[in-house]
Design brief:
The chain is 27% helix and 25% strand. With 176 residues, it is of the alpha/beta class. It has a single domain, classed as DHBP synthase, CATH 3.90.870. The protein has a 10-stranded mixed beta sheet with strand order 1-8-2-3-7-4-6-5-9-10, with helices on both faces.
C-alpha cells in the first residue's frame, strides 16, 4: 500500500494496528513501527538483516516522552536537548536500568503529526544492512517489496542520516 504525507490519520492508524511502514523523515527514509511492540521491532531487525544488539532510534514528539523509557535527565541533558532538538540529531541517553537508548525529536511537520497520533516510533534507515540508504519510496520497495505493510511517498530525500551523540556522565561524544 502506498500513501502520501497527507494521509496522517491513516498512517497513524496503521502503525497503531501493528503495521511496519516506510516513512520519510527530516533526514532519510526510514522503517518504522510503534516503540512498544517487541514483535514488530524484531520484524524490523529481520527486514534489515541486523543483529539483535544493533541499536535502533526511538522517535518522539515531545521531550516528556523520555520519562516512559526510564531516561535520566539532568541539567546537562536538558541543555543538550535545547541545543540539538528538534532536528536531525540523535541523542543517546543513559537509562535508570543501566543501559542506553537513542532518541530523536524530528523537525518535520508530517512526522511530528504522525508521532502525536501514534506515539513513539522505532526508526531506522530504510535499507538492508550495509546497503545504500533509500532516497525515495521506489528504492525502499526494491529492498523490501511486500514485506513492509505500507510506504509513504514524501518525494526525493537527499539528506545525510542523523548525527548521533552519546551523553554519559556529563560528557557529550559524537558517534556519527
Amino acid at each position: 500500500m502506498q500513501l502520501t504525507t497527507k494521509d496522517i490519520d491513516q498512517i497513524a492508524s496503521l502503525l497503531l494496528e501493528g503495521k511496519v511502514g516506510v516513512l520519510p523523515t527530516d533526514t532519510i527514509y526510514g522503517l518504522h513501527c510503534v516503540a512498544n511492540d517487541p514483535v514488530l521491532i524484531k520484524k524490523i531487525y529481520d527486514l534489515k538483516k541486523l543483529s539483535d544488539n544493533t541499536p535502533l532510534i526511538t522517535l518522539i514528539s515531545d521531550e516528556k516522552e523520555l520519562e516512559q523509557f526510564g531516561v535520566e535527565i539532568g541539567e546537562f541533558e536538558k541543555e543538550l536537548m535545547k541545543k540539538y532538538w528538534p532536528g536531525p540529531n540523535t541523542l543517546i541517553f543513559d537509562t535508570k536500568g543501566g543501559d542506553t537508548r537513542s532518541f530523536r525529536l524530528p523537525k518535520n511537520d508530517f512526522l511530528l503529526a504522525v508521532l502525536k497520533k501514534s506515539g513513539s516510533l522505532i526508526s531506522t534507515s530504510a535499507n538492508i544492512n550495509k546497503m545504500p540508504f533509500s532516497k525515495n519510496v521506489n528504492q525502499a520497495v526494491v529492498y523490501f517489496g511486500d514485506k513492509v505493510d505500507f510506504y509513504v511517498d514524501g518525494g526525493e530525500e537527499d539528506n545525510p542520516p542523523s548525527s548521533i551523540y552519546k551523553i554519559s556522565k556529563g560528557e557529550l561524544t559524537k558517534i556519527r
